[in-house]
Amino acid sequence: MEKKTFNQAAYVNEYKKKFYKQYAFRFSLKKDQAIINHLEKQTDKTNYIKSLIQRDIEKSEKESSL
C-alpha cells in the first residue's frame, strides 16, 4: 500500500482558491504617478484599499436611503 504524503503547498493553494479572491491592478507610470506615490506611502495597502471601498459603500447606502 502506497503512503500518501501531505502536500502543504497544494493544500494552501486550494484553501486560497476556496476562501479568497485576488485582484491585480496596473497603474501608468506617466498618468498615475500621484496615485502610485500615495499608495506607496501606505503601510498596509490591502486595508487601505478595503477602507476606501467600505467608505464608498457606506456613502452610497446613505445617499440611496435619502
Summarize the main sheet.
none
- The run of helices and strands is HHH
Which radius of gyration do the C-alpha atoms yield?
20 Å
Helices, by number, come to: 3
What overall form do the CA principal axes indicate?
flat
Structural class: mainly alpha
Q: Quick check: average pLDDT?
A: 95
What is the β-strand count? 0
From the structure provided, what is the oligomeric state, counting identical versus distinct chains? Answer: single chain
* Amount of beta strand: under 5%
Uncertain segments are none
Approximate helicity band: 55-70%
Distance between the ends = 68 Å
Characterise this structure.
The chain is mostly helical. 62% of the residues lie in helices and 0% in strands. It contains three helices and no strands. The longest helix is centred in the C-terminal third of the chain and has 20 residues, at 45-64. It is flat, with a radius of gyration of 20 Å. The model has no long low-confidence stretch (mean pLDDT 95).
Key terms for this structure?
66 residues; 62% helix; flat; mainly alpha; 3 helices
Can I get a quick summary?
The protein has helices at residues 8-19, 33-41, 45-64. It has 66 residues and is an all-alpha fold.
Write the topology of this structure.
Elements: H1 8-19, H2 33-41, H3 45-64
